[in-house]
Amino acid sequence: MPRIRKIGWRTWLWRIPVLLLGAPILLIAALRWIDPVTSAFMLQRQVAVWGEGSWRWVNYEWVDWEYLAPALPLAAVAAEDQRFPQHWGFDLEAIADAWEDQSKGGQVRGASTISQQVAKNLFLWSGRSWLRKGLEAYLTLAIEALWPKRRILEVYLNIAQFGANVFGVGAASAMYFDKVPVQISTREAALLMAVLPNPQRYKVDRPSAYVAGRAARIQTFMRQLGSQYLRDL
Prior knowledge:
This protein is mostly helical. Helix content is 56%, strand content 3%. A 3-stranded mixed beta sheet has the order 1-3-2, with helices on one face. α3 (71-80) packs across α10 (209-225), α5 (114-123) crosses α6 (130-146) and α9 crosses α10 (209-225).
């Protein structure tokens, strides 16, 4: 009679990290074609809304790339990651500049690319722990390897937060401009991207002097990049 081979706990132990690291790869591969119905940041915000005693849902509406005004992806790149078409997930030049500024006693500033922000917003939590940064780097590499640049930018525009409970350019266009995304102008696109550093503090519909000035700079960057900058994505 054949012996039944028992699988010991040590055998399972090494499989756990393989599963934990492999499962996100499968999900990322699927999300190349399947539009996400939510994100980690949306879920965190939804829990916070319920914790405040409200039963409202966060405002989110997916919009496919072909229904986005060309100004929207260009404004996102101009505002957040001007070397987006060239890098593979990490802007080493921006990281070096930020590190140099910090070493000289300057203000700590981020150098996250759009790809890194997609990894963080879609799968992770807010914060600055080394664990989160490590997972973010791993997920960023997977996203860059498995998605074309256009898909990365499409997902980014659809899950970015533009207000306390407003996620994605679809919901933001309707909320702030009473438009669909394909109708958004260059000025409006720049204004949306101007609040991204802190969308719960800065207001699209009531822009402060800082937000208005940032939006004007974004429009300048958009003109410098040119309307054909993202043509080959």
